[in-house]
Design goal:
CATH topology: Alpha-Beta Plaits
Protein name: Ferredoxin
Strand order of the largest sheet: 1-4
Largest sheet: 2 strands, antiparallel
Cofactor: [4Fe-4S] cluster; [3Fe-4S] cluster
InterPro entries: 4Fe4S_Fe-S-bd (IPR017896), 4Fe4S_Fe_S_CS (IPR017900), 7Fe_ferredoxin (IPR000813), Fd_C (IPR022569), FdxA (IPR054829), RnfB_subfamily (IPR050294)
Function: Ferredoxins are iron-sulfur proteins that transfer electrons in a wide variety of metabolic reactions.
Bound molecules: iron/sulfur cluster, FE3-S4 cluster
Organism: Erythrobacter fulvus
Length: about 100
């Protein structure tokens, strides 16, 4: 599966949802997540994210994000079309430690 990681927090560009063939993105207040049991591993969302927040879970160190995507995709609502990002999205792009600072 692919997972959404820390770089999405406070950016939420939502380009990813437009290209997903199975509509498996879910929206929280500060970030999106992928439902790993719905993702078909097509990979088309990865290059679409301006924040480079989407990665295959085969990369090292992503266990925390796989768990987080699994947990919150079961709780948050499905999002299937792109929407405007937060006004300050670009200011948060590439920022460090966004999970500790903003995740709620
Ligand atoms: Fe959707 Fe494909 Fe991305 Fe999985 S890899 S979330 S199926 S676009
Ligand atoms: Fe987040 Fe990137 Fe999608 S910032 S909402 S994963 S396009």
């Amino acid at each position: 599966t692919y997972v959404v990681t820390e770089d999405c927090i406070k950016c939420k560009y939502t380009d990813c949802v437009e290209v997903c063939p199975v509509d498996c993105f879910y929206e929280g207040e500060n970030m999106l997540v992928i439902n790993p049991s719905e993702c078909i591993d097509c990979g088309v969302c990865e290059p679409e994210c301006p924040a480079e927040a989407i990665l295959p879970d085969t990369e090292d160190g992503l266990e925390k994000w796989l768990e987080l995507n699994t947990k919150y995709s079961a709780q948050w609502p499905n999002i299937t079309s792109q929407k405007a990002p937060p006004e300050d999205a670009d200011a948060h792009k590439g920022e460090k430690d966004k999970f500790e600072k903003y995740f709620s």
